[in-house]
Write a structure and sequence with these properties.
Elements: E1 5-13, E2 17-24, E3 29-36, H1 38-41, H2 44-59, E4 68-74, E5 77-83, H3 90-94, E6 103-114, E7 121-137, E8 142-148, E9 156-159
């Protein structure tokens, strides 16, 4: 990894690893770096599961999936570099006041209307895909029921109003 990636910060963590938001210094872009937790790298069953996940993701190439950029081992540590997709999750919303019973909308950005002279975006057309009703909230997550069209990577969640 060396100087190729600069860690911006921790993005998330789960039972098997952590995900960092990183800057690819060569391509000057923001990526996500998923790292299998060090103590789990010694567990061959969990390591095999992580490797299978990498293989599955590498086999998928679709506009609605975060793209896999690279996968490698570094000092017996498994790492995966993925496309970083901006957006708002229910977990993030819970930290700014999402409560049980809140109704949120799921929106998809459509085409943009640009000034032909400057290229500046004047308006973005978006469509509402569905609604989320928050059913549970705790310190680290939110859960809800969803009705509407299937959401995709890159869709956003916000107050419906």
């Amino acid at each position: 990894m060396g100087e190729d990636y600069q860690i911006i910060g921790l993005f998330g963590a789960g039972g098997m690893g952590k995900v960092y938001k990183v800057r690819n210094t060569i391509g000057d872009r923001i990526d996500a770096l998923k790292v299998l937790l060090p103590d789990l790298a010694e567990d061959s069953e969990l390591a095999d599961c992580f490797i299978r996940e990498i293989g599955l993701q590498a086999s998928l190439n679709h506009i609605d999936r975060a793209g896999l950029r690279a996968e490698f081992r570094l000092e017996n540590q498994f790492l995966v570099v993925m496309e970083f997709v901006e957006g708002t999750t229910l977990d993030e919303r819970s930290k700014v006041g999402v409560k049980v019973g809140d109704h949120l909308g799921v929106f998809r950005q459509g085409r943009q209307i640009k000034d032909p002279a400057t290229g500046k975006v004047l308006k973005t057309i978006e469509s509402k895909l569905g609604d989320v009703t928050v059913t549970e909230v705790d310190d680290s997550s939110s859960t809800g029921t969803y009705s509407g069209q299937p959401p995709k990577v890159g869709d956003t969640v916000r107050n419906s109003q």
